[in-house]
Amino acid sequence: MSLSLFDAEPLPPEVIDDGVVLLRGFAAQQGPQWIEAVQSIQAQAGFRAMQVPGGKTMSVAISNCGDWGWVSDLQGYRYSAVDPQSGRSWPAMPAFLRQQAVEAAALAGYAGFAPDACLINRYEIGARMGLHRDQDEADFAAPIVSVSLGLPCTFLWGGLTRSQPARRLQLTHGDVLVFGGASRLVYHGVQPLKSGWHELLGHERWNLTFRMAKAGYSVT
Ligand code: MD6
Ligand code: FE
């Protein structure tokens, strides 16, 4: 029997590392709703290339929703309450996205996750993300919930130091990686997107990362 995109069952949680859980297929059944939500955000705050402090331009295009959005320019990285392109607040986080992210976090053992930011990355063929760690958030006790849509990618899962060898992890449409605990500051990245075609997103991969940018995390 072959399963299509729309009837794929989510698989049991898989522990990747200390504090890191992969929920394969969590978002697959509702893929079209995820995509619709991102398109509505995109209509208000379009994907754009960002410069890194060194002066280069990222190959991944970025947008945000929620109270805070991650931005990068020659001055550095930070969370901003306004979209520097429009001067307006970022689009509100759609309730569907928030609910799904909170549910995924809870399934992974992180009750009380309350995201105030969602960074959205768009990869075209060849786009990549170098090894980095996410350290611009206020409280590293809070996990990050990462959702992959569209074309598959090879995700690099390193260690707490940059020089530690990285494992390769395939992330495909609908996979959700919940990333926290002792591994919250692990180095990670994405290899150049290989050419391919996805029935919902064509030549693209989208990644959404839900974060607690400014809020403190408590499990109550
Ligand atoms: C991506 N993700 O999957 C890039 N960061 O395209 C990340 O950089 C990331 O997936 C923090 C936590 C989870 C992630
Ligand atoms: Fe990251």
Automatic annotation (TrEMBL):
Binding site for Fe cation: H132, D134, H188
Keywords: Dioxygenase, Iron, Metal-binding, Methyltransferase, Oxidoreductase, Transferase
Start and end residues of each Fe2OG dioxygenase domain: 114-214
Binding site for substrate: W70, Y77, R78, Y79, D136, R162
Residues given in the record as 2-oxoglutarate binding sites: N121, R122, Y123, R205, W206, N207, L208, T209, F210, R211
Keyword Cell wall biogenesis/degradation in annotation: no
Cofactor: Fe(2+)
Cofactor note: Binds 1 Fe(2+) ion per subunit.
GO cellular component entries: cytoplasm
NCBIfam families with a match to the protein in the record: PRK15401.1 (NF011930)
Name of this chain's protein: DNA oxidative demethylase AlkB
Naturally occurring in which organism (per UniProt): Comamonas testosteroni (Pseudomonas testosteroni)
